[in-house]
UniProtKB/TrEMBL annotation:
Keywords attached to this entry: Hydrolase, Magnesium, Manganese, Metal-binding, Protein phosphatase, Signal
Cofactor entry: Mn(2+); Mg(2+)
Residues spanning the signal sequence: 1-23
PANTHER family: PROTEIN PHOSPHATASE (PTHR12320:SF24), PROTEIN PHOSPHATASE 2C (PTHR12320)
Top-rank EC class of the record's enzyme: hydrolase
Catalyzed reactions per annotation: O-phospho-L-seryl-[protein] + H2O = L-seryl-[protein] + phosphate; O-phospho-L-threonyl-[protein] + H2O = L-threonyl-[protein] + phosphate
Full protein name: Protein phosphatase
Molecular function as annotated in GO: metal ion binding; protein serine/threonine phosphatase activity
Stretches that traverse the bilayer: none
Family: Belongs to the PP2C family.
InterPro entries hit by this protein: PPM-type-like_dom_sf (IPR036457), PPTC7 (IPR039123)
UniProt EC number: 3.1.3.16
Amino acid sequence: MGLWSRLILHFWVAAMQEDLVKPRPEGQAYHPDPVQYLQEAYERTIEATAEGNDCLGTTTATGAQLFYKGDSSGSTPTATPLLYVTNLGDSQVIVVRAKGHKLVYKSTEQWHWFDCPRQLGTNSPDTPTENAVVDTVELQEGDVVLAMSDGVIDNLWAHEIVENVSKSIERWEAGEGGPVGGDRAHGTNGGMTFVAEELVKAAKQIALDPFAESPFMERAIDEGLASEGGKLDDISVVAGLCRRNAS
């Protein structure tokens, strides 16, 4: 039923928001600490599912928090979008620069062994403070940030994801994907929903094909296992567009 993973995400967001609005001494700036937020979420989830609730579960965890890097050395202060990517397990965050069909960043998957990812939850030894990894990625306006479950990356190679996303945005800008009012540039006004849906379709097509070549098949063969076709698994995509605030 996915309760464990939903609780982890709920408490992860709550911990971040609580720290963001927490009063600080004058001159002390806020700095994201996503691993600590995930650790708090993990502990709160254990507490919420403890004695009396009889709730068992495990989940991988991947997330991206948008912040900025300030520079006041020049005559005019500037701020560069900075993405804090946190990962534990075999889900993945990818950043695509669609204009150039370019892969900007891809997080690294974590396994105990093949097809056994690190996870948070019941009977798992993994914890955020011990095992989660954080990367920071400088973004440009128009970059697309994707958070995906292993059902996507087990069936599509990174270059296929980049091409799928870039072409989906081009199609969206050309008017495909349903009627919408306003600007469609770079995938605005609903374009990210279209991007996510098209990526899910592409991953599902490979997952259901017993003769397709897939990243999962390639890794299995490298491990000496007989494997052919796609990998049936949960397929989830969240897509976000880096845009400048109107204000």
